[in-house]
Amino acid sequence: MQKAVQKRTLRTRARLLAASEEVIHREGYEALRVEEVVKAAGVAKGTFFAHFRDKDALMEILIGERLSSIFDQVEANLPPKTVPELIRVLKPIHSFMTSERYVFDLLIRYSGAAAVAEIGPIAHCFERYFRVVENWLTYADVRKDVSADLLAEGVQAFAIQAMSLKFCALHEAQSFEDKLEIYLEAWLTPAT
Amino acid sequence: MQKAVQKRTLRTRARLLAASEEVIHREGYEALRVEEVVKAAGVAKGTFFAHFRDKDALMEILIGERLSSIFDQVEANLPPKTVPELIRVLKPIHSFMTSERYVFDLLIRYSGAAAVAEIGPIAHCFERYFRVVENWLTYADVRKDVSADLLAEGVQAFAIQAMSLKFCALHEAQSFEDKLEIYLEAWLTPAT
DNA sequence: CTAGGAAACTGACCGTGGTCATTTTTAGGA
DNA sequence: TCCTAAAAATGACCACGGTCAGTTTCCTAG
Questions:
Q1: pLDDT tens-digit profile of A4-23?
Q2: Nearest by CB to A191, which of B158, B170, B192?
Q3: Exposed e or buried b per residue across B135-166, where buried means at least 16 C-beta atoms within 10 angstroms of its C-beta
Q4: Which of B101, B115, B191 lies nearest to residue A167, judging by beta carbons?
């Protein structure tokens, strides 16, 4: 049988996660320092890396969890039928994704599963984004000459483009949501 | 009058750039170490940072230059008229962008001008991408119900999406170019 | 209850990017 | 040619993520 995980392990892991969340709550994601976390959790630095491959792995878990809970709320909404409704309903997700430059960069970097090995929590969230939008689009008032899943991929691509622009010195004039609406109207409007 | 830049400054900078290029040529972008560069250039570490804000700033210059020269070649082509032609003509650019994960990440991170201040060489390249595609699309056989500049932004968004997928464990089956062609056919085909 | 092997933990140490007070070099006016 | 102020270069130092040989704790077979 599988060697059982010691209770101690779970306790230590929980302490590390709690300490991390506390730091992030106080100072934001970007400011998190491993040293600070282990001090707050009362463990040695090496222990941190026995529990998480690296700092990014911890971040992926924390950001993934947060994003996942936002998805839960978003999915509770009635399916949007129009582009403005779609944007409004997705707003909490996009807001979190662009809440910190650090968060956005990490999301993008992990959006397609880290270069290495298996798919992580952030990649799962991007898949979920895709799946949710696809379902919505199946019954929304949008073009039907291309499949809903292709449309959904496009929505994701345009959302990322619009979010990048938010961090861009060049396009600061136009707001993220105006930009996204223009994109999505062009992408989703039924061909007449 | 402006205090003239000392000749020494230009010489040192040139040495640093040459040393960097040499290292990158030998070992790739990711492997570049500042220590190695300064040793090869025969200067102290502090000097490096007097010439470049940080390591990323050097990378931006080198990658930007390389990308820029690829654009020069690409622009020498006849304007593409169809989606497959468009993809074929852009191929050298996309190939370089995805040549190393490190390069792709850095490009994305700087695509919209670093969070701070003024627009850098990489952001210029992304603007150039946009402008070039826009010009092509103006005379290509594509939908005309939305403006060429919006179409061009979409092409960029889809290209980035397709490139991300290249680094994604999930979608490895489908090739970058097949994916991009599907996207662009749906995005650019004239509404009938 | 005990022994001993495995799992968990430790902290000194390393690699690497980046800083800054100090020293060296440059250039041009007397 | 010499003097001097500004520009450039230096290298010891720091911050921070990550490693690993050694130590402690836990669990279970006997």
A1: 688 999 999 999 999 999 99
A2: B192
A3: ebbeebebeeebebebbbbbbbbbbbbbbbbb
A4: B115
